[in-house]
Write a structure and sequence with these properties.
- With 221 residues, the protein is mainly alpha-helical.
- It has one domain.
- Helix content is 63%, strand content 0%.
- The longest helix has 20 residues.
- The termini are far apart.
């Protein structure tokens, strides 16, 4: 039995509070993080909240269901973006725990995370997405070509991370329209459909397909 005292280490309080609060009222994973991570520090949570209020990001995830937004799923998507972009080699099931561990690491300074630079990349990425891909960026389409009113998570992973990793080159090129066409070709193409799962192979392959496609355009191939 552990006895939590006022003078107990912050990390011990955090892990005990986290354990206790996963067995009571059902909260979303991000709502639990928002409560428990603050025992380690507020910087990471405050950063996610600030990024989630970015108007370009809000526009890009507009098709996420309203009930999920109420439970802070938009903040979880911000966390997912940074975790997969920066920590893909540690990606594993359960994804909820993977995301929590990454937030713990950036909150406690256990990994390098330049908040100012990461925010700039985030803003530029979603500025591009809003301007050139719009609210349909992460939506699928029917066999007849009609865009579905939906948010598809596996599109989010592949598109956002590949754009973020290449955003400097993209903003300097004179081939933006071709980049957009290529993203949509990959998005709706047959190869991507084989990698819809949340497995590490699925996530890495989605990012690779979009990244290689955009790089070919940028290199003039």
């Amino acid at each position: 039995m552990e006895v939590i005292k006022k003078e107990s280490e912050t990390s011990l309080k955090y892990h005990m509070f986290k354990r206790l609060n996963t067995g009571g009222e059902i909260l979303s994973a991000q709502e639990i993080r928002n409560c428990t991570i603050r025992l380690l520090g507020a910087k990471g949570i405050d950063f996610l909240e600030e990024c989630s209020k970015n108007t370009d990001f809000q526009s890009a995830v507009k098709r996420v269901a309203a009930d999920k937004i109420r439970t802070r799923y938009d903040q979880e998507l911000v966390l997912r973006f940074f975790a997969i972009k920066n920590d893909i080699d540690n990606y594993k099931y359960p994804v909820t725990e993977y995301l929590t561990r990454y937030l713990e690491k950036i909150t406690e300074g256990k990994v390098i995370f330049d908040f100012d630079e990461e925010k700039k990349v985030f803003e530029k990425t979603f500025e591009f997405i809003k301007e050139y891909l719009g609210v349909e960026a992460f939506s699928g389409r029917t066999s007849s070509g009609t865009i579905r009113n939906e948010f598809v998570l596996y599109y989010f992973d592949g598109i956002t991370v590949s754009i973020a990793n290449l955003i400097g080159k993209i903003t300097r090129c004179d081939c933006v329209q071709k980049v957009v066409e290529t993203i949509n070709e990959i998005k709706y193409g047959p190869e991507l459909q084989s990698y819809k799962t949340g497995s590490i192979n699925g996530v890495k392959t989605r990012i690779r397909l979009f990244t290689e496609g955009v790089e070919k355009v940028l290199d003039g191939r």
